[in-house]
Amino acid sequence: MADDQKQIARQQHAHSPRSGLLQLLAQRNSDMQTADSISPITAIVYSDGPHFETFLQEITAALADKGLRLGGLVQHSRPNPHRVKCDMYLRDLATGELYAISDDRGPHARGCVLNTDRLLYACQKAQTGLSSRTDLLVLCKFGKTEVEGGGFRTLIAKALELSIPILIGVPLINLVPFREFSAGFAREVELSQFVTDRCSIAERLVWPLVPETEGTGRIA
């Protein structure tokens, strides 16, 4: 009887969403093997949210200038004189479209103002723009929603299916659950390691992920 229960548990785990994602990670990591091991996900670990937001906006602009075909969502926070909390938007890197993702919960609201339905809509729109021609998926945050099993997880899974490398921000407070989620298939880079030369940073971040086309200087 105990053996039967163990077999059932193994079968349930094998068909769980987390197990499916781990299989995709393992396959992606296998596909990307070269002389050196390359992780399919690069996580930029940070503790200063506004600093990282500006950093990611500048880095994605530098990557686009280098000719990369980017997909994904980058956060833009805009101060609102009538509220304590900023208005939050996500910019789709493939289309330039802006999606409002925050709720107006009054002038003195200090808690989470994220509207998860709007976040889901932005994720769905970004996912439709992913294809085998996408060079890199960039996601602004592995946040509370992702820790709880939602948010950008579907975009990550889709990118892995298409063998698209992923660049994602991870708040230090969420690093442990992110490590559980990525199961050893992500390399971590501290935001504090970078200097102010955004072009050099872009090259440093991307060269292990996206090979350069020989003789052109363009990232393939």
| Overall radius of gyration | 18 Å
Number of strands: 7
H-E order = HHEHEEEHEHHEHEH
Question: Given the structure, what is the number of helices?
Answer: 8
Q: In one word, what is the shape?
A: globular
Largest sheet: 7 strands, mixed
Uncertain residue ranges? 1-19, 31-36, 213-220
- The order of strands across the largest sheet is 4-3-2-5-6-1-7
Straight-line N-to-C gap: 55 Å
Please report which band the strand proportion falls in: under 5%, 5-15%, 15-25%, 25-35%, 35-45% or over 45%: 15-25%
Secondary-structure class: alpha/beta
Helical amount: 40-55%
Topology (elements, then pairings):
Layout: H1 2-14, H2 17-31, E1 41-46, H3 49-65, E2 70-78, E3 87-92, E4 98-100, H4 116-128, E5 136-139, H5 144-147, H6 153-161, E6 166-171, H7 175-182, E7 186-190, H8 198-206
Parallel strand pairs: 1-6, 1-7, 2-5, 5-6
Antiparallel strand pairs: 2-3, 3-4
Give a summary of the structure in a few sentences.
The protein is α/β, with parallel strands linked by helices. Helices cover 40% and strands 18% of the residues. The chain has helices at residues 2-14, 17-31, 49-65, 116-128, 144-147, 153-161, 175-182, 198-206, and strands at 41-46, 70-78, 87-92, 98-100, 136-139, 166-171, 186-190.
Describe what you observe in this structure.
It is built from eight helices and seven strands, in the order ααβαβββαβααβαβα. With 220 residues, it is of the alpha/beta class. It has a seven-stranded mixed beta sheet with strand order 4-3-2-5-6-1-7, with helices on both faces. α3 crosses α8. The longest helix has 17 residues. The N terminus and C terminus are likely disordered.
